[in-house]
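Researcher: Quick test of sequence recovery. Tokens follow.
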């Protein structure tokens, strides 16, 4: 389940920022173009990093370990 959450933590901020739904990504070219556009935008990269951090940390344990 961790990997599904990690994939969603990366994909959700990108799709939300660009206003794209899953039905808009019908070709590999459009998917790779979206990823490239996301990597070119520092704000989107920051959103993804925060989302990943929130996915990785466990608020019930002390520190960053599980």
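Model:
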């Amino acid at each position: 389940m961790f990997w599904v959450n990690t994939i969603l933590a990366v994909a959700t901020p990108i799709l939300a920022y660009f206003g794209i739904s899953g039905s808009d990504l019908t070709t590999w070219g459009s998917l790779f173009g979206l990823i490239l556009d996301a990597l070119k935008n520092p704000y989107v990269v920051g959103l993804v990093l925060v989302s990943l951090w929130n996915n990785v940390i466990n608020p019930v344990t002390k520190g960053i370990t599980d």
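The longest helix spans residues 2-18.
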